[in-house]
Specification:
The chain is mainly beta. The chain is globular and about 100 Å long. It is a multi-pass membrane protein.
Length: about 1050
């Protein structure tokens, strides 16, 4: 069934791809048959290096091509025209053909980027006229040795805070926020748009850098208000590459890499484990110890590991390293009528889990990602252009039952000396085909190796997108008037199946110490089986449709005035085939109308006004539509006549900007909680009911009002203010500084002050929350050309974002003001203040009462309210939030002719995290509340190992260190020592060598001998070293340190162009 569905999907796509190839062949034929004047040439920069992607257009028309990786271009012309050569950061040149067949161009860089074009909401603008806060990153800067694009964001983009807490293939998305966490509502994630269409973060992760034309983040009200109710958390705006007129250009990039954990959690050896387990048993007065002297000594001797096991569960389950591959192939070209860009991608990621060859299936992670993309531009007339975009990505996953992170967390929960992972067959089991997994008692102890090897799961996650866009130049009606329309449909499909057997568990019996012989006894003969049972786990199908229409106008009035305007209408429709209930089965719909007006005077003074008018089905009629306006202005100071001489030589460019406006957010409350203006009543509520007559069995279920209607619930709204300065220095450096302030109000919250007399079972919700945030973004770029072919460039960025609660629904804390969240940072952690460890039992007895039987070596907490008892009222704000308040990145590159070297450093500061004292507590049985609720590992005996750091530094009678890393050992959980407190709080700051790369581009004279335009080979590494005081695991993982570790990658790649 799995292979049939996959084959059907691939065949359907291949049929579409075949139609595209026919169209491409036709366009190429048109190109070959044209008899117009052919002009070709090469575009170089000031260092005589080719400028890939430089644009060559025919002045006054929509025709144009892009330069290939060698900077070469070809274009067919039917008459004498002028060609416009442009590229980001370089001065645009207009050159007449004058009968020539070859035109080579050397472009000069500009620090003020007056001719640079910036992608903005629903279009493009010259950078000099942009008023909003937009940061643009060259896609090439996001190339990292990873199949996940989100892992490249940290430290690369001013205004974005990003961090990664897992390295598990398929589950390694980075968390990212634009200007930090600015709301404590349901959603604080940015809107992601790819070619104008909203995409989830999972699809951003699967995008290929080779296919991207631009990557921008939009941060302030002017930049985002056109998205109205979707733009409050910022917008990530991405466009993909399009074809160029000319011969087919083929580009191939292949990488192979080896990855390993940046840092593994270290556990104490089995001997130390048993010795400290005995110590833990005796610390509370227990005279019995779990491990005898004989067992410890015989285990130390290691003569009979089946009887006296010493299992290293890490090396048993995990590989030292794994190998991955990535391939991208793209072809672009076309003729006068049609142009195309077609790309195919294949990524293969293998996890760190081992596979047992005795199984005939793969239980380790094997993640394959495939991608196909085709963008076709067709000139229907001289004024009409049609664009067809098709894109599909699908992930084919094979892996263990559960997640790989589950198995990392199972390692610490397993006793290393109770039984081995498996037994070698004895004489009685010599013909047994199944694996003889170790266990104890009735086979009810955790054996992570058996859990790993017992089965596998497969899933396919596919996305298919088809988009049609048409652009019409309406100069024949009014010069400068243009219209466009775009329809997009996207389908998401996901299904998962699993197969598993019940493991056979064995233990040793009849052990003869003299001969070393023993018998293996099966502990679960009636419940275990060898066959692979089949289970269909989940299926999801989602359909999304989107339409937008744009009418725009721009013109110059005389020499001094430029005006522009735009109106955008859009509709969105989403429906799920796996709704589960009536409300969720209804299509989710949104409407929007947006507009922009721009005015410029003498290229010195710029004004812009925007609005978004959006409708959402979630609100009552009186609040269904929201209006979100914004205004902005800019002054290009360096374009003033007085900006000359010495000032201009030092400050070569200066632009001041300011914006103010409103942006909305309709992603409030749970996605299943859709229609706030409707009450939700359960007419068959079994927990309450009525009994009639004398028979108690005659019971009728009651009714429950699960939600009260609230017609006043409306949009969450953000009021944003942004002030910025763009400064060019010495024609070499460019500095952009943005300072901002934001007030978020109408945040949806559950009311905490609802009187019991109201008689509601579920507390109502209302827009009562408010928050403030402020911060600064700084971006610095430097480029310098040195003598004899040397060049050097550098970059740096810093993002500082601070937010706080202004209004928060909470109990009345006037008597205990330190318990209130108002005025504190969003995400502030509360906990106890740990002063130190108790000196001895007497001090513990004479101190304020804490939690349980407290002795010397347990954590001593501060009595904040002075009432002589430590309670929850003594919990105060501690540390920073877990989301960093500050992130930064520093990088440089240097090159000489064909050799290039670059490095990049990523940093984070002003964040805290907490070691999970319960999950890491030695010798105890632990399951989180979420695991208990889900039934995970229910009925299984667990016993934590001890971290090596705890073994080295814990309080004991022989080590009365009052600042020891771990307090007094216990064999059962100590309620007192498990509290969230400053004792287990750690500083999340770090500086990481994120990437280093060395590359070499072969001389063109050599590569052309074998028919290749360009060959570049490179080696790089990522996550190479981390500077941090925290050493238990990779500090960027925060409190998730027992999970799948971040990966250190060493990569070899080659890139070729034909």
């Amino acid at each position: 069934m799995l292979s049939l569905k996959k084959a059907t999907f691939i065949l359907a796509y291949l049929r579409i791809l075949l139609n595209i190839l026919v169209l491409l062949g036709f366009s190429t034929l048109l190109h070959a048959q044209q008899t117009e004047h052919l002009v070709r040439g090469q575009i170089l920069n000031e260092k005589d290096e080719p400028i890939q992607g430089a644009t060559v257009t025919v002045q006054g028309s929509t025709r144009g091509v892009l330069a290939d990786e060698q900077g070469r271009y070809e274009i067919m012309l039917d008459k004498e025209v002028q060609l416009v050569f442009s590229y980001v950061g370089y001065t645009t040149q207009v050159i007449p053909i004058s009968g020539r067949t070859e035109i080579n161009v050397v472009m000069s860089p500009i620090t003020d980027a007056i001719d640079e074009v910036t992608v903005v909401a629903f279009g493009e603008q010259k950078k000099e006229s942009v008023v909003g806060a937009i940061t643009t990153v060259r896609p090439s800067e996001l190339k990292v040795p990873s199949s996940n694009l989100t892992t490249a964001l940290a430290g690369r983009v001013a205004g974005m805070i990003a961090f990664q807490q897992s390295g598990e293939p398929g589950a390694d998305n980075a968390d990212f926020f634009i200007r930090g966490v600015t709301s404590f509502g349901y959603s604080n994630r940015p809107l992601i748009l790819v070619d104008g269409v909203e995409m989830p973060a999972s699809e951003l992760a699967r995008l290929q850098v080779d296919d991207l034309a631009s990557f921008s983040i939009m941060k302030d009200a002017t930049a985002t208000s056109l998205y109205g109710a979707r733009g409050a958390n910022g917008v990530i705006l991405i466009t993909t590459k399009e074809g160029r007129e000319g011969k087919a250009n083929i580009s191939l990039r292949y990488e192979t890499s080896a990855s390993q954990p940046t840092r593994n959690v270290e556990f104490a050896d089995p001997i130390t484990y048993m010795e400290l387990a005995n110590e833990a048993s005796q610390t509370r007065g227990n005279l019995l110890t779990p491990y005898s002297w004989e067992k410890i000594e015989r285990t130390r001797e290691g003569l009979d590991p089946m009887i006296y096991p010493a299992t290293d569960w890490q090396s048993t389950l995990l590989k030292d390293r794994t190998f991955n591959n990535r391939l991208n192939l793209n072809v672009s070209g076309g003729g006068k009528v049609a142009r195309y860009y077609v790309a195919a991608t294949y990524n293969k990621d293998n996890g760190m889990l081992k596979v047992d060859n005795r199984n005939n299936f793969n239980n380790g992670i094997d993640l394959k990602t495939y991608g196909l993309r085709s963008n076709v531009n067709i000139n229907l007339t001289n004024t009409t252009e049609a664009i067809v975009r098709l894109n599909s990505t699908w992930t084919d996953y094979t892996g263990p039952l559960g997640t790989a992170t589950d198995f990392y967390k199972q390692i610490i929960r397993t006793d290393p000396v109770l039984f081995p992972a498996y037994y070698e067959p004895d004489e009685r089991n010599s013909t047994t085909e199944h694996i003889l997994f170790g266990n104890h008692d009735a086979g009810n102890y955790l054996n992570p190796y058996a859990n790993l090897m017992r089965g596998y799961r497969d899933y396919i996650n596919a996305m298919f997108l088809a988009q049609f866009e048409i652009k019409q130049d309406l100069d024949f009606i009014l010069k400068g008037l243009k219209a466009s329309g775009m329809y997009n449909t996207t389908r998401y499909n996901y299904y998962q199946v699993s197969r598993a057997y019940n493991p056979f568990y064995y233990t040793v019996t009849n052990y003869d110490r003299r001969t070393g012989e023993y018998t293996l006894n099966n502990l679960n003969p009636t419940t275990a089986h060898e066959y692979l049972a089949y289970n269909e786990d989940s299926k999801q199908i989602t359909s999304e449709d989107y339409f937008q229409g744009i009418l725009s106008y721009s013109t110059d009035i005389g020499k001094d005035h430029s005006v522009g305007g735009m109106l955008v209408y859009n509709m969105q429709n989403k429906i799920s085939a796996n709704a589960g209930n009536l409300q969720s089965s209804l299509a989710r719909r949104n409407l929007g109308l947006a507009g922009r007006f721009t005015y410029a005077f003498q290229n010195k003074y710029f004004f812009e006004g925007n609005f978004g008018y959006n409708g959402s089905e979630r609100f009552a009629k009186e609040h269904r539509f929201g209006f979100f306006p914004s205004v902005g202005a800019a002054w290009y100071v360096s374009n003033e006549p007085f900006w000359t001489g010495g000032v201009q030589r030092v400050i070569s460019n200066l632009k001041l900007r300011g914006t103010y406006g409103l942006v909305g957010n309709d992603a409030i409350g749970d996605v299943q909680d859709r229609f706030f203006y409707l009450s939700q009543v359960n007419p068959n509520y079994g927990a309450n009911g009525y009994t009639f007559g004398s028979e108690f069995g005659n019971r009728i279920n009651g009714m429950l009002e699960e939600r009260q209607e609230n017609r006043n619930i409306t949009w969450e709204t953000s009021r944003k203010l942004n002030l910025s300065a763009e400064v060019g220095l010495f024609n070499t450096a460019n500095l952009v500084v943005d300072v901002y302030q934001e007030h978020r109000y109408n945040i949806l919250m559950t009311r905490a002050h609802t009187p019991n007399t109201l008689g509601v079972a579920v507390l109502p919700q209302a827009n009562v929350g408010e928050a403030d945030s402020r911060g600064i973004d700084v971006q610095l770029d430097i480029s310098r050309n040195l003598a004899n072919g040397w060049f050097i460039s550098g970059m740096g960025n810093l993002t500082y974002a601070k937010s706080k609660y202004i209004k928060y629904e909470e109990p009345d804390y006037r008597a205990f003001p330190w318990r209130s969240r108002v005025g504190l940072p969003i995400g502030q952690q509360f906990g106890f203040v740990a002063e130190r460890l108790f000196i001895d039992d007497e001090e513990a007895y004479n101190s304020p009462a804490q939690f349980g039987n407290v002795l010397g070596g347990d954590i001593k907490y501060k009595d904040i309210d002075g009432d002589g008892v430590i309670t929850n009222l003594d919990m105060v704000p501690i540390g920073y939030p877990t989301v960093p308040r500050m992130t930064y990145g520093i990088g440089f590159s240097i090159g000489y002719k064909g050799i290039d070297f670059s490095s990049f450093f990523q940093g984070s500061a002003k964040s805290s995290f907490w070691i999970d004292s319960e999950a890491t507590a030695p010798f105890v049985s632990y399951r989180s509340q979420a695991e208990i609720n889900s039934g995970y590992l229910a009925g299984i005996n667990l016993q934590n190992q001890i971290l090596q750091a705890y073994a080295d530094d814990h309080w004991s009678e022989d080590n009365r260190n009052l600042k020891a890393l771990w307090p007094r050992l216990n064999e059962i959980p100590s309620d007192n020592n498990m509290k969230v407190s400053t004792w287990f709080m750690r500083n999340g700051a770090f500086l990481r060598i994120k990437q280093i790369e060395l590359g070499y581009t072969f001389k063109e004279s050599l590569t052309k001998r074998i028919g290749i335009e360009k060959i570049r080979m490179y080696v790089n590494g990522s996550n190479l070293y981390n500077f941090s005081k925290f050493k238990l695991w990779d500090v960027e993982m925060g409190g998730n340190g027992l999970g799948y570790p971040l990966q250190q990658v060493y990569n070899l790649g080659i890139q070729c162009s034909l």
